[in-house]
Specification:
- By secondary structure, this protein is an alpha/beta fold.
- The protein has 2 domains: 276 residues, Aldehyde Dehydrogenase, Chain A, domain 1 (3-Layer(aba) Sandwich); 188 residues, Aldehyde Dehydrogenase, Chain A, domain 2.
- It is 39% helix and 21% strand.
- It has a 7-stranded mixed beta sheet, with helices on both faces.
- The termini are far apart.
- The structure holds nicotinamide-adenine-dinucleotide.
- The site of nicotinamide-adenine-dinucleotide (NAD) has 26 residues, from helix 8 and helix 9.
């Protein structure tokens, strides 16, 4: 631990499991360590849940469901609105905690508090807007009533890269819809969720409505919950292989699922683009969160006539980035989450360079404490390189030249993923054609960041199922009932 303020903050984070409104130790008192990726030091020891603990959390969520589902939506909305307000008051604590446990620079952590907090406000507003419909059937022989109902107890699994926003993006719509939840944050970054759960209790969330389990046995603990018939919904954000495994488990009980999985975002720069805008967009689309975002631009597909100029300009910017612990002022590049991430990033860059790509900046792991990798630019990356096929999840900007629009579309769509794409062009008709031709669930047109609580976030193809945020997000936690009644005049 590095200073008193951080120590105090960490000491205030609950270390137990939140089950039925009580913080309790894991079965047998088992604990797991949480580390700071910038220093490698252990910063907290928290409860390590067993399968029985997971079941106890589901018991609590199932018990609390009828009363929460029957709570007027206005009351549920007010609780979420209070959570939004409390998060504003405690924003600095949440930002610092995310920086300590995850590594992102403090300025970005503050941005995540703003973005993540917004889901509480958005869904507090959406809660009261869930409506059904009533009307005569087309034959005129009866009346059709369509109503919406909370789906039931939900299991929410989140990744480590956005510790607050991934939790609020699931918890807020679930609570707004009248569902109760068991949340399982990633093992690497559980502290933010634990602190947020404490905040929700302060905001008035009743006991058992939000339960939190932390565990080093994500597989067995989750499987037992997913296969339990009392569970009615699984919402997962994480890697595609784990998502596929969970979908297979969910299939047995025909469980409702939402899946926010991996991405391999193309970032297309046409010769008619405003290069200043494209370079600025590229820097945020690539280096936010050190490239550890499912929305991170993975492949920079740049028209051959501007590829060299684009590469020169981004390289100049990349050389100005500052590596270090995210709590230090001026730091723009924090650590990767762990050693495995460093090894994977290095292997992807080495593979591209061995195939003939040009290394323009970076290209090495940073020696010493912490898991840092230099921000890197590689150009003329040959098709077939692992860098273009796999989700990089690191600070590597890979440039591929293209010849014409059809070529750009072919390269951009040449992936099993379809989360987000970015397009830079000043030609409106071309921009519109790209909206229609790119196979992704989201698109930034002359914009390098697309996430917004008011927008439907989600992917096509193997990037997932369902949407989070927007007017769509709450429907992931609702089920529809159609009722036919007789013609009251007959
Ligand atoms: P991961 O799949 O390893 O882990 C995600 C979560 O699943 C963690 O909570 C982990 O503990 C849990 N988990 C791991 N194995 C499990 C199992 N067998 N059963 C149940 N739970 C299990 O992914 P990660 O490395 O934490 O996150 C990075 C991935 O998440 C990337 O692929 C990224 O694209 C994706 N991601 C997607 C979105 C999106 O909205 N599409 C957002 C953020 C991250």
């Amino acid at each position: 631990m590095t200073n008193n303020h951080e120590d105090e903050l960490l000491a205030g984070v609950p270390a137990g499991l939140l089950i039925g409104g009580e913080w309790r130790p894991a079965e047998g008192g088992r604990t797991l360590d949480v580390s700071d990726p910038a220093t490698g030091k252990v910063i907290a020891q928290i409860a390590d849940a067993s399968v029985a603990d997971g079941q106890a959390a589901l018991d609590a969520a199932a018990d609390a469901f009828p009363a929460w589902a029957a709570t007027p939506t206005r009351e549920r909305a007010e609780v979420l609105r209070r959570a939004f307000d409390l998060l504003q008051e405690r924003a600095e604590d949440f930002a610092l905690l995310m920086t300590i446990e995850m590594g992102k620079p403090l300025a970005e952590a503050r941005g995540e508090v703003a973005y993540g907090g917004e889901f509480n406000r958005w869904f507090s507003e959406e809660a009261a807007r869930v409506q059904g419909r009533y009307g005569a059937n087309p034959e005129g022989t009866g009346r059709m009533i369509v109503s919406q109902h909370p789906v039931g107890p939900c299991y929410l699994i989140t990744p480590w890269n956005f510790p607050l926003a991934m939790a609020t993006r699931k918890i807020a719509p679930a609570l707004a819809a009248g569902c109760t939840v068991v949340v399982k944050p990633a093992t690497q970054t559980p502290l933010t969720t634990l602190l947020f759960a404490a905040l929700l209790a302060d905001a008035g969330v009743p006991a058992g409505v939000v339960n939190v389990i932390t565990t080093s046995s994500a597989g067995p603990v989750s499987e037992s919950i997913i296969r339990d018939p009392r569970l009615r919904k699984l919402s997962f954000t994480g890697s595609t292989p784990v998502g596929q495994r969970l979908l297979a488990q969910a299939a047995e009980g025909v469980l409702r699922t939402s899946m926010e999985l991996g991405g391999n975002a193309p970032f297309v720069v046409f010769d008619d683009a405003d290069l200043d805008k494209a370079v600025a967009g590229a820097m945020s689309a690539k280096f936010r969160n050190v490239g550890q975002a499912c929305t991170a631009a993975n492949r920079f597909i740049v028209h051959r006539s501007v590829a060299d100029e684009f590469a020169r300009r981004v390289t100049e910017q990349v050389k100005g980035l500052v590596i270090g612990r995210g709590t230090e002022p001026d730091v723009t590049i924090g650590p990767l989450i762990d050693d495995r991430a460093v090894t994977k990033t290095a292997a992807l860059v080495d593979d591209a360079v061995s195939r003939g790509a040009t290394l323009r900046a970076g290209g090495r792991a940073v020696p010493g404490a912490g898991t840092f990798y230099e921000p890197t630019v590689v150009s003329d990356v040959p098709e077939g390189s692992d860098l273009l096929r796999e989700e990089i999840f690191g600070p590597v900007l890979a440039i591929v030249p293209f010849e014409d629009e059809d070529d750009a579309v072919r390269i951009a769509n040449d992936t099993e993923y379809g989360l987000v794409s970015y397009v830079y062009t000043e030609n409106l008709a071309r921009g519109q054609r790209m909206i229609e031709r790119l196979e992704t669930g989201m698109m930034g047109l002359n914009m390098g960041v697309v996430s917004n609580a008011a927008a439907p976030f989600g992917g096509w193809k193997m990037s997932g199922l369902g949407r989070e945020g927007g007017t769509e997000g709450i429907h992931e936690y609702l089920q529809t009932k159609y009722t036919l009644t007789a013609d009251p005049f007959a």
